[in-house]
Every structure is written in C-alpha cells, then in structure tokens.
Amino acid sequence: xxxxxxxxxxxxxxxxxxxxxxxxxxxxxxxxxxxxxxxxxxxxxxxxxxxxxxxxxxxxxxxxxxxxxxxxxxxxxxxxxxxxxxxxxxxxxxxxxxxxxxxxxxxxxxxxxxxxxxxxxxxxxxxxxxxxxxxxxxxxxxxxxxxxxxxxxxxxxxxxxxxxxxxxxxxxxxxxxxxxxxxxxxxxxxxxxxxxxxxxxxxxxxxxxxxxxxxxxxxxxxxxxxxxxxxxxxxxxxxxxxxxxxxxxxxxxxxxxxxxxxxxxxxxxxxxxxxxxxxxxxxxxxxxxxxxxxxxxxxxxxxxxxxxxxxxxxxxxxxxxxxxxxxxxxxxxxxxxxxxxxxxxxxxxxxxxxxxxxxxxxxxxxxxxxxxxxxxxxxxxxxxxxxxxxxxxxxxxxxxxxxxxxxxxxxxxxxxxxxxxxxxxxxxxxxxxxxxx
Length: 437
Known about the structure:
The chain is an alpha/beta fold. It has two domains: about 15-245 and about 360-420, 3-Layer(aba) Sandwich (Rossmann fold), CATH 3.40.50; about 250-355, Dihydrodipicolinate Reductase, domain 2, CATH 3.30.360.10. Helices cover about 40% and strands about 15% of the residues. The strands form two sheets. It has a seven-stranded parallel sheet, with helices on both faces. It has a four-stranded mixed sheet with strand order 8-7-9-10. Helix 10 links the parallel strand 5 (about 215) and strand 6 (about 240). Helix 1 crosses helix 4 and helix 7 (about 140-155) crosses helix 9. The longest helix is centred in the C-terminal third of the chain and has 21 residues, at about 360-380. The relative contact order is 0.16.
C-alpha cells in the first residue's frame, strides 16, 4: 500500500535568501557554485549524496534521495541575502578565510555579482557587531515591509519560481516568549510600536512567512519559535523550521548519548568547552548572546537520556557548556568534551573527545539541505513546524505541548520516513516481520 501525496514538481528557479552573508552563508554559496562547476562534491549533504531504502530489503531499491523525489536541482538555485557590511560574497568569503583562496578566485565572477541588500540590524541585540549597511525606518513594521519589497524585487530580477529563506545571521541576545509573541495581532501591534522583544531575526521571519516563503532559523534566536509566527505560518500555508544548526559539539552529543543510553551505561558528568574565533565566536563572547546558545546546547542530553526514567544512570548528571572566543582559530572551532561514565557495579570510566572541526564546512550542507527540503515541503502543501527536519537542529522547534526529539538516529528515521511518505512509498519500521522486510 502506498500513500497518495500531491507534490508539485520542482520546476523553475529556486531563490535561496540568507539574512547574514558571513562565513556560513558564503561557504554555502561558494561551495554550491563550485559543485555545479565540478570543482568539488557536496559532502555532508543528505539531499545530494544520501540514499534511501524503499520497500523490503530483498528488493534492493536504494536510490539517491534526489533521484527518488522531485528536489530542486542545484543548477536552478540562485542566491541572495542581506548583511550589515557591503562586501560582495566574494570579498566576504575571502575575509571569512574558510575556503581556499584559489578556489574562490575560480569563482570570483559569480561570487562578486552577489551583493548584499541592506540588513535589518539593531546593535542592542548583537552588541559585538557594528555595520553601516543597514535599513532605517520609523517602525519595525516598516522594516518588515522593506524586507518584503527586497524579496519581491529579488524574485522578479532573478526570474525565480519559488523562494526559501535560511537565517545565517548572528546569535541574538536571549529573549523569552512573552505576550507580544502570543498572537499575530499582538506581534503586528508590537512591530508597529517597536517592541523591544522583537529582534531582527523575527522581522525577517515575519516578512518571509507573510509572503508564503519557507523560513528556517539557523541560530538559537527566538525568531519563528513563537505562537504568533506558528499561527501565521498556518494562515499563509508556510513551512517553518528551527533552531540553531547542529554542527560540532552538539552533533557529537546526539551521536554518542543515544549509544551510551542504549547500552545502559551511566553518566556522572559531561563537561564541554569550545574555542572559536570567527564572527560567531566574537558575538558569543557577550554573556547575553551566549545565554541564547547555552539554552540551545544544554537541553540535548536531558531529553536523550531521560534521567527521570533512568535515575540509577543519569539522575546526578552534571552538564556544563562553555564557549570561548579565541581569534587565532578563526572558523576552525575546537570542541573538548570530558565524559565521566560508569558501568557494571558502578566502576568508573572516562571518554575524552577533541573535535577539531570547521564550523562553516559542517554548516554549509545543512543550509543546502534545509533550503531544498523546505522547498519540497512547500510544494507538498505542508505548513507550520516541519518537525521531520529536527535532524538538522540543536534545539528542534516543536508544537506546543510536545518535547523535542534529540536522538539523531530517531531524527534520521523520521526524516527518511517523511520522504518515503511524500514519495508515495511504504514507511519502514524495522519490525523484522515478513511484511515489513
């Protein structure tokens, strides 16, 4: 038995818009163009390199995901965005220092042609940055309207059939959901009244969702994770997802913790510290901005390990996270983890990890997959929170009353089963019974 799902074909050009054209966005854009020119491969992108099992194991049907279901072709993608600095994508990529200069020079013509639109920016929310390429208006609603005009112009000038938006800007100060976020009416009044709890990322989210453009939140900002914007996303039939790209240390936690739990091994403590020197590191050097990241990173272990259900193993777990700005490392983030575990008869053991990762190299394929899959969701007439994309997030956005799923293996199964559903194939449960084999 198959599912009947009406997915519109991925015909025409897909515009991918990124608020923020720093290290992550420029690495994504330059990398995608390099891949199109045969100068590299999309390593880390499930949408481009992943396969998916269909039907019984005995059928040996394991096509590439992009050959199984209608996804936007990389050749049909065009790029744009906003930034507080006027640098072209070429200049910004050179300044970021992530990709090899020789590769960037091979792409110079294409990258130099992509120039940022003036950004919505307020130093109150990101104290460590100070750019001049910014929009001005009397109210935040007027700023949102300016973003909508930018979007309309970009779509027309680039002959796009469809658009998606992926936030690649900085981490904003920690903001709790409050009354202004409780309904669309309250949020729109707050935009007109310049409410302090509406940061730039929320202005972009509002503009995109109001125009029916899928929106993904790549930072731990509140952004679209509010009752008002979830309500708006349903009104305008818009897919949304977030939050905070799952790249380095948290990626390791969501891989390791499920394995330790599956083996019923206890954990006394998990100490994590990071050093990084890119723009993100500089922003997170401010305590108010670090608070947003800390909340995003701390919830992972508690949900995976469920200490209330396994008190003998995890009730006394001490979990600490630190992030330190260290300019010499640039975009090459280093994450250290010390894990104190215990086994049979409470005998102690330790695990130590030193993950010398490249933050933007890990984030770039996530931006690509989110853009490609959110476009698929839109063409499949899905709206609201796309929980099946939790695989990509540190702190997955979920419907009210639910808890997020952080186990990366369960997230991956949900992602694949959603693709099977959209492609009209039988879901796979791995029960091992004949009719599921």
